[in-house]
Every structure is written in C-alpha cells, then in structure tokens.
Amino acid sequence: MRIAMIGGGYVGLVSGACFAEFGINVSVVETNPTRLSALREGRIPIYEPGLDALVASNSQAGRLTFGDDIAQAVAGAAAVFIAVGTPPRNGDGAADLQYVHAAARQIAEALTGYAVIVTKSTVPVGTSRRIAEIIRRTRPEADFDVASNPEFLREGSAIGDFMRPDRVIIGLDQKRPERAAQAEAVLRQVYRPLASSEATLLFTGLETAELTKYASNSFLAMKISFINEMADLCEKLGADVHELARGMGLDTRIGRDFLQPGPGYGGSCFPKDTLALSRIAQEAHSASRLVETTVQVNEARKAGMAGRIASACGGSVAGKTVGVLGLTFKPETDDMRESASIPILHRLAEAGATIRAFDPVGMDAAKPLLPEGVVYCADALEVADQADVLVVLTEWNIFRALSPNEIAKRMRSGVVVDLRNIFDPQAMRAAGLTYQSVGRP
C-alpha cells in the first residue's frame, strides 16, 4: 500500500514517519524549499524525541520519501492525507483554511484512480464536505471519498501517541453508506498494524470527527484553567494544590492528567482550538460560555504572571536581573507557539528588567519572539549568576536536578519563583532561598 502525506510539518512528518514504520510506503509532499532540503538531507526541522531515528531508518528502507511534486505523490496512492497548517484567522480566531483548500484543488488535478482524501489537519465542522465539493468542481470525473482523521499527538511524546494510541477517530460520509464502506476498508488497511493493540478504531460521521478534536482539546484546556484557579485558591487558604489534584485525579471520572498548575497553557493546539471552537459555536448560534471563559482565564493568567514575579521582588523588577529557566510552552519540544514566556518576558522587559534565559532546545525559536535585550545563556546555572530572581517557566527535567545550594551560591538575591512547582520547597528554603511556587504553602 502507498499513501501520500500533503504537508511535512509537525503533524505530517510525524504521521508520515509512523505510517512508514507500519510498513506503508509514504510520499511526503513539502513545498517549503528550506524544509524540504533539510528533510532530504536527513535533518529534522522540528524537535521531537526519536523522530530523527524514525525518519532515517524508514528513509533508508525506501518507505519514506520527500518531494514537492503533488502529482507524483498522489498518483496511485490509496489514501491522501492533508496535513497542512490551519492557523487562526486574523481578527476572529477561526481556522484559516486557505492551505487546505489549495491542497484539495491540487489533489483533484493529480488523482489517477480511486483514493480516500483524509483530513489530518484540525479543521472546522463541514470542511471535509467542502473538500469534496472542491474536488468535484475541479475534476467532476474523479473517483474518491473523503474522511476526517484528526490527530491527537502530544508534542514530546508524539511517536508513542501515534504508535500506541488510546483511540483513532475516523469520520466518514454516512449519508452515502456504500461509499463510506469503501473508504472504511481502505483506512482499516492503513491502520491494520494497530489491530493487535488495545487502540479503538472509532468510525463516526464526518461532522462528529471534525468536532471531536476541538471538543477534546477544549476540555483539556478547561482542566488546566480549572486547576490554575484552584491553585490560586489554595494559596489564599493555605492548602496544597498537588494534594488537591491527587485527590481529584484518583476519581476515575476525572483522571489525573492535565491537573498540573502553571502559568497558563500554550502550544499549537489548545489556544488555537479553543478560539476556533468558540467561533464554530458562535456561527452555529449555540452558546459555548465555558470555552469562551477558558480562553479569557488563560490569557489573564499569562498576563498576571509578570506581576507575580514583580511582587516577589518587592513590587518592581526595574533595574533587576531576572533569570529564566525554560522558554518553550512545554518540555521535550522546541515549540514557542503561544508560550507563556512570550507575554511574561515582554512585560518584564517593559518594566525595566534585565533578562537572562536558558532553554535546552528552544532558544533559536524563541529569539525572534522575545525582547531584543534577552541574554541567552549556555546552561541553567549560568542563568542564576548574579540574578535577583530566578523564574521557572518550563519544567524540563534537567532543571529538577539543579542543586539548591549551588543556585543560592550564584544568585545575588536568592528569590526563586517556581511557576511549574519542580523544586522541593523545604530544600530550597533550607538553602537560604526565598522560594515561591504555585498553589503550595
């Protein structure tokens, strides 16, 4: 079996490499010359643990190829996956579908036989049917079906998520049962290697599959915003948010995941998808107040973190040196999209702080997004040198191993604001540091 993957970005590259690992021949189409050149040379343009080895082994085996010719990739493919970007549209937060629509037109012109056109990109409800309309208008004689197959990959653990998923959701045109059955047979073959695992292949209608991705991410975002509000309440009442989260998470109806307090969620999915779902609900004239409030709460939390840091410094960071540990929105990725570090560091710089920062993999991506005066350090301890306050923004594991005594020795004023709760409060205070965390006494 051979498939085509239109888009060599995060979703397309990870999905393509994992499908190739299943034994499928995968042609990845990437039109960005710089990214395509890197992929052909074996250089991975994104950071994802294990992805470089997976791409290298499958490229060497001939199962994974990269090119910019859609016609060549699509010809004879049993399934064509659309994995192009759907960034928020300026002004209203709705997903911008120009790249999806362009891909649909190009696929239509390239089809040589029956194929299932599968949307991997996160798209609003109705997009799959719109893709079908575009293809029919471009090539009335084309033989194809459409499907929606949203991805649920977490950056930093994407390969494991793809190879060992808890579910695979596939939406089909259930208004045309015979065609849906034909498309289902193809996609069952694509995902056949998962048959021996415990993964559930859930077949739904097109609209349900498209909405499920937005609903899932928005629900998880709400969990994060909820535990952040509980962390604030814990601070007021002298409670411990970690013990509270454990007590909540042991309830199987709630679960343990996404109950870690912090400076607010970021990344490529939650901010974009909550905004998009709000827009979808507005256009459907169906109130989505919980999602809208989640967006507002998260933005307010990010904005308020700079104030928390200033308060720890006596009310002002003017003329003070702020050391920052971590810049990316989460560990194990170089993704800076919607990272809490962006608004926080800009506010600190505007307030007159000198900023020193270190991130294990994200500094190149961070530089265009952060204030010009940020000093980028070679390691975590260098960040602490002569710092008035040390701030933890990303919970990289290498930071957890830092010695409190060494931190105290290097700092000018031993104030630590741990917005990810990675350090032991007792150990930090025993080293003579003034330590603040989130939602803990």
Topology:
Blueprint (H helix, E strand, L loop, with lengths): L1 E5 L3 H12 L3 E5 L3 H8 L10 H10 L3 E4 L2 H5 L4 E4 L15 H13 L4 E5 L7 H12 L5 E5 L9 H6 L3 E6 L4 H14 L9 E6 H32 L3 H9 L20 H14 L5 H24 L8 E5 L15 H10 L3 E5 L4 H4 L8 E2 L3 H5 L4 E4 L4 H4 L3 H7 L4 E4 L6 H6 L3 E3 L5
Helix pairs in contact: 1-3, 5-6, 9-11, 9-12, 11-12, 12-13
Structural overview:
The active site is at 269 (nucleophile). This is UDP-glucose 6-dehydrogenase. Residues 323-425 form the UDP-glucose/GDP-mannose dehydrogenase C-terminal domain. By secondary structure, the protein is α/β, with parallel strands linked by helices. The chain has 2 domains: 2-198, NAD(P)-binding Rossmann-like Domain (Rossmann fold); 242-437, Rossmann fold. Helix content is 44%, strand content 14%. The chain has 18 helices and 14 strands. It has an 8-stranded mixed beta sheet, sandwiched between helices. Strands 11-10-9-12-13-14 form a 6-stranded parallel beta sheet. α18 links the parallel β13 and β14. It is elongated and about 75 Å long. It starts with a strand and ends in a 5-residue tail after the last strand.
